[in-house]
Amino acid sequence: MELLVDFLIGFLKALIVLFLVILPGASGAVYFERRIAAWIQMRIGPNRVGPYGLLQPIADVIKLIFKEDIIPAAADKRFHFLAPLISITITVAVFAVIPFGHYVVINGEPVYLGVAPNVHVGILYVLAMTSMGVYGLTLAGWASNNKYSLLGGLRSSAQMISYELAMGLSIVALLMVTGTPNLMEIVEQQTGWRWNVLYQPLGFLIFLVASFAETNRTPFDLPEAEPELVGGYHTEYTGMKFGMFFLAEYGNVIAASAMMTTLFFGGWQVPFLPELLGLQEGSVALALLQVASFTIKVAIFVFFFIWVRWTVPRFRYDQLMRLGWKVLFPLSLANVLITGLVMLIN
Amino acid sequence: MNVNQPSERQKMTFWEKLYLPEIARGLGITFKMLIGPKMTIQYPEEKYHPGGYYRGRPVLVLDEDGERCVACGLCSRVCPPLAIEVRAGETDREKERYPVKFEINMLRCIFCGLCEEVCPEEAIVMSKDLEMVFENRESAILGKEKLLVPVAQLQDRLEYLRMHQYYEPPARAQDA
User: Among the CATH numbers 3.10.310.30, 3.50.50.60, 3.30.70.3270, 3.40.80.10, which is that of B58-164?
Assistant: First the structure.
């Protein structure tokens, strides 16, 4: 019986996260991507559908649903169908361990704000999932039976391998500081401005650059480099299948932003002590405040992702590899070493 | 990988090789653009008002004492896509000739402005009118009633032409 209740609560949380966090978040990110792109290019951007063009993403999705679904004659139909599903599933799966707030007491029981925020191997789970995401892209490139798609998919996997290392090592240094891979505990340790970014500035920088590569965002968006690869891995996709890749990309951006917030910027911690407002730990008001704090931090990072996309031109392939292996990898190793030495001295 | 080595001139300084300071500078520039003024004209609500340089719909100039055109047919002759049709008529007035029929087929017109350039009377000029929508092919052939525009509305273009043309403008009563 207790198992069933736990399962139901978890299921409910998953639904809430899916429909109130990921879908609006991703469509909002698409809207702001287009709006900010326009502003940076001295344009105005979409402002015709609904107030301020806010309904534009909905119009886009409706358009994508009603578009013809084309499968190339030479494509492997099963994998062609499967690839976008893998992409989107993995993106959604990352959100399972992200803590959106601390907890709310309901019937004397603490209900944690997150689908499974107390998973002990939270960080490892996120790393595993983000590196699984590349299977969707590579499979899409392979199943399309198109040379440009294949090149895009291969680039994606090569890029993933190169940057996963640096990312993992930057997290190793972080784990040495925090001493736990549990995301909830990591956030709890960062109360009162003791943000991890202050202890691990280099680690944060490496993580930031690596997450740009992991989410295939400019300046590392080589898998879909339009000038050379037509559309990269999603060249042969139309309609909602393309839409799923699109959604997965923005979902990944939000997930990466959420991870940076959680690991380095205090997660849901509000920037002042809640006692000043007389809010009790576990009350609904404080929980809302924490979720708001988390959302604002994530939104700032998403804005940063978009801002960088319209500023920095794409890297050449060899430059990308050189940055990954010759700069970020040694730097992250050095970061681990320095962190260890400092901890040893203290 | 077969990549050209950068020449001496292209080599980056250490500061530039760090990437991050230069990226931060670039981010600063784009942020300035982000909050700066926008170029877009919100078309149906806001209209574009070009200066005298603009070559819009060709029109015939209507002076206070009537149309300027003397139906010499030069515009019709010079028109590359053969969009202009002129048929001349005669009157008893001092200016004997006038166009009985003057038609411009807007489906053919390419807005080159040659008619305006060749006209010895400054009678056909390019207006600022850029909104040309026709519901059928017949209505796209503009007759005299649609082509004649009072000279007051065309001052910008006429001034522009006087500043930029290669020949002496014809002497007019109002100039003297």
Answer: 3.30.70.3270
